[in-house]
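Extended Data, panel c. Modelled sequence:
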Amino acid sequence: MHGSGEDMAAKPKKDPLAALMALPGVGKATAQKLFDAGIKTPAGVNKAGEKGIAKAGVSAAISKKLLAAVVKKSAKKATSKAKSKAKKAASKTKAAASKAKSTAKKASSKTKDAASKAAAAGRKVAEKTVSKAGDHKVKTEKSKDGRKGKTLKVPRSVKDMSWFNKR
């Protein structure tokens, strides 16, 4: 049915020389020379050095340019990797700081809760103490001089106090 095979959807193969041709000053012919010599990537160019590139049939001037371009490209990659690692480390540090902050906030709220509970318990004890002490009221008596209401009966000496007479 399909005689030529053009109708079938197949993945196009990537050009093996594309990585080498991405380097400045490397055309199809130079890339083919390097590929035939076993140098297939920019890292391979760096590994082969000037002597390896010269054995592939590339002139010394071009080999120097190639090595400089590969070193520059690898330096850019290393710089970008270092930057991304630094960003990741900064984001991890930031996340750890925010986590520590939230933990401190939680601990602070727990401390505040404990303090308010202690204060409430203290108030209850104080109220009980006051209610027990409230039994000792100052006695009052009807005023003898014709005024309305009652007058407080304030003791003049210790002998007039109620606790003194209980013996």
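The CA atoms of residues 33 and 149 lie 125 Å apart. This feature is highlighted in the accompanying rendering.
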